[in-house]
Amino acid sequence: MQDKKWEAFPKPTNEQLKTIITHPGNAQILVSCADAIGKALARQLTTNQIRAIFGEVRRIEGNWQPVIGDEKKSAERARQASQSLKLLKPKMAYRAKRERGKGVEDLVSVLSPAIDYVGESRDNFTHFVEFFEAILAYHKAYGGN
Description:
Helices cover 73% and strands 0% of the residues. The chain is globular, with a radius of gyration of 16 Å. The chain has one domain (15-141). By secondary structure, it is mainly alpha-helical.
C-alpha cells in the first residue's frame, strides 16, 4: 500500500471546474471534487492558511452585492469585484510560495483556474464561493487543524 503522503493531489479537470462554476445543476461534481480536495488538504493545510484566502473571497463577495434600484452602480460594483477576484490570483500565488509545505500551493492550483471561469458573472462567483465553502467544510470534517 502506498504511503498517504505520496498520493497525487486530486486536482479537478478543467471540464469539472467549468461545470462546477458555470453549470451548477450538477451538485454531485462539486461535492465529489470538494470532498477529495478537502480530504487531501486536511493532512497538509491549517485552517488559518485556508481561511486567509477564504476571508479575501468573502470581502470580494461583500463588494459584489448589487445596489438596489441602481443598475449602473450595481454593474460598476460587479466590474470592480470581478477585478478584485482576478487580482486574488497573484496574491494566492505569492502566499503559496511563502507558506511552508505544499497545502496552499495545492489549494491555489484548484482555485486559480476556477477563478478564470467566474468572469464578471455574479452567479458564477456564487458557485465559486459555494465550491470553496465545500472544500473548507470537508477540510474541517476530515480533521484539518
